[in-house]
Each structure stands twice: as C-alpha cells, then as structure tokens.
C-alpha cells in the first residue's frame, strides 16, 4: 500500500478555529493555551483524534506546537518546516516561531511581561518538558494551569478514539514468546534494583506483549499503557473494546477515557 497524504486543514480554516479557542480561553479565565503535536503516549505517530495542531493551525508537520494567547498565536517549528509552515497557516493570524532557537518559556516571558495563566493538557507532556518550562518561567509571574483540552471543547467534528480490534502477533514474526520477553526485561529491572517500569509508548507495549493494533493508519500499534513488574507480571491499561473476549490474558477494564484507565487481570 502506498502512503497518501490527505489535506485535513486549510489556511482559511485557521482564523475561525483560533477565535473559538480564544473564546474558550476567556471562559476558562486563562491568558493562553499550549497545543502540542502530541498525544498521551508521546510517540511519533498520533491518531486522527489527536491531530489538534493541524486542525487548529493547518500545519501538518510531524513536530511542533502552537501557543495561543489573546493577541498572538505562535506556531513553533524546527528547521525542517520553515517553508512548509508559511504555506499552510494564515500568516495574518499565526506567527511562525523558529524552534528550538526560541524557547517557549522565553517567548512567553516576552509576550506576557505582566505575567499570566497558561493552560495545558497534562496528558500531552512529559514530566521533563513541564519541569523545563516551569524552570524558565520561575519568577516571571507566568503560571502553568492544568485544564482539560480547550481544542477538544471547540472541535465539533473531532474524530472518535480508534476502536479497531487488537490482534496477537504470531510467534513466527515476533520470534520470541511474550512470556520470555517479560522475563528477560524483568531481570533487567531486578539487576537495576527496580520494582517496576512504566511503559507509555505503544510501540514498546506491543513489542513486549506480542500484540498489534490499528490505531494509526501507517503504524500497527495499539494505543495502551503498561506496568511491567520485576516478577514479569504486567498490568495493561487501555480501551476494552479493542480486545476480543477470547484473549483472556488481554482483557481490559471497562473504561474509554485516559483519566479512568485501570488494570485488568495480570498476565
């Protein structure tokens, strides 16, 4: 199958969508909101539901983010996308910002010299990213506020979460049973005097458990999380609709939102 690239947003769609997010800012009593090109797993590939940056700005690059303030919206892009962003966003409403040359914290301090409250969806950032940003903003009067995603509030036709079923990856392709993989990695935890490892990247979870999914059109991943214990046991977290009931060791809890993910029976 050849990869195709469908246009999901156009420059002229950006201004009304930006206005909608700014209206949500006012309702939330915020001075800004950060929209990354990321999902809860911090991987390279995101489902259509998580393409918030492209929906809002029109920019479809694989990395970047937008900081929406009341009077300016900066689209942060690296050197690969300096030309692309100018063709995809409405330059009367969005301002391309060279990144990482310009750090988001430094840009915010320049734009908000009197301070302010910047909202962010905590599911879309690593702890390290937040620490770095908070360190830069220290003493500036600018604070970070955890909120539910403002883009999701105004994206009326946002695609639903992926629901395609998971599948078992045959041992003829995996090359090693999941029991042996779990035992081998668990031994590494013991060697490092650790009790468990938290796996957030679907690629890692799929490899460890010898499963595959269809949550991304160009990568056979199943969006889920897992805790691997030093005993080799695994707690798996995800949407139960993706798991066939016949695969007892893959059963998941009855939850469909990240905030309520919980563990099913250990393998």
Explain what this protein looks like in three dimensions:
- With 267 residues, the chain is an alpha/beta fold.
- The protein folds into two domains: 11-154, 3-Layer(aba) Sandwich (Creatine Amidinohydrolase, Chain A, domain 1), CATH 3.40.350.10; 167-260, Creatine Amidinohydrolase, Chain A, domain 1.
- It is built from nine helices and eleven strands.
- The chain has helices at residues 14-27, 52-57, 82-88, 104-111, 127-137, 150-154, 171-174, 178-191, 202-209; strands at residues 32-36, 65-69, 73-77, 95-98, 116-120, 142-146, 167-168, 196-199, 211-212, 225-229, 234-237.
- The strands form three sheets. The protein has a six-stranded mixed beta sheet with strand order 4-3-2-1-5-6, sandwiched between helices.
- A hairpin with a 4-residue loop joins strand 10 (225-229) and strand 11 (234-237).
- Helix 4 packs parallel to helix 5 (127-137).
- The protein is globular.
Distance between the amino and carboxyl termini = 35 Å
**Based on helices, strands and strand pairing, what is the structural class?**
alpha/beta
Low-confidence stretches: 251-267
User: What strand order characterises the main sheet?
Assistant: 4-3-2-1-5-6
The CATH homologous superfamily of the largest domain is named Creatinase/prolidase N-terminal domain
Could you tell me the mean pLDDT?
A: 87
Q: Per CATH, which architecture of the largest domain?
A: 3-Layer(aba) Sandwich
The domain count comes to 2
Q: Kindly report the CATH topology of the largest domain.
A: Creatine Amidinohydrolase, Chain A, domain 1
Q: Can you give the helix content as a percent range?
A: 25-40%
Count every beta strand, where a strand is a DSSP E run of 2 or more residues: 11
């Amino acid at each position: 199958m050849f990869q195709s690239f469908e246009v999901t947003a156009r420059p002229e769609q950006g201004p009304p969508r930006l206005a909608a997010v700014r209206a949500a800012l006012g309702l939330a009593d915020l001075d800004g909101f950060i929209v990354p090109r990321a999902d809860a797993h911090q991987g390279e590939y995101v489902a259509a539901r998580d393409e918030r940056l492209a929906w809002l700005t029109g920019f479809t690059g694989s990395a970047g983010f937008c900081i929406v303030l009341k009077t300016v919206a900066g689209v942060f892009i690296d050197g690969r996308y300096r030309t692309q962003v100018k063709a995809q966003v409405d330059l009367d409403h969005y301002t391309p910002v060279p990144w990482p040359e310009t750090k988001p914290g430094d840009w915010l301090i320049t734009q908000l010299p009197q301070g302010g409250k910047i909202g962010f969806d905590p599911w879309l950032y690593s702890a390290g990213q937040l620490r770095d940003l908070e360190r830069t903003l220290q003493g500036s009067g600018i604070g970070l506020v955890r909120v539910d995603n403002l883009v999701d509030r105004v994206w009326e036709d946002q695609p639903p979460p992926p629901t395609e079923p998971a599948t078992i990856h045959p041992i003829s392709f995996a090359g090693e049973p999941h029991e042996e993989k779990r035992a081998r990695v668990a031994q590494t935890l013991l060697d490092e005097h650790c009790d468990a490892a938290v796996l957030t990247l679907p690629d890692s979870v799929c490899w460890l458990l010898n499963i595959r999914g269809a949550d991304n059109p160009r990568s056979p991943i199943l969006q889920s999380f897992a805790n691997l214990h030093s005993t080799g046991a695994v707690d798996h977290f995800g949407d139960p609709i993706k798991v066939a009931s016949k695969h007892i060791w893959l059963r998941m809890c009855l939850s469909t939102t990240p905030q309520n993910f919980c563990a099913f029976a250990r393998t």
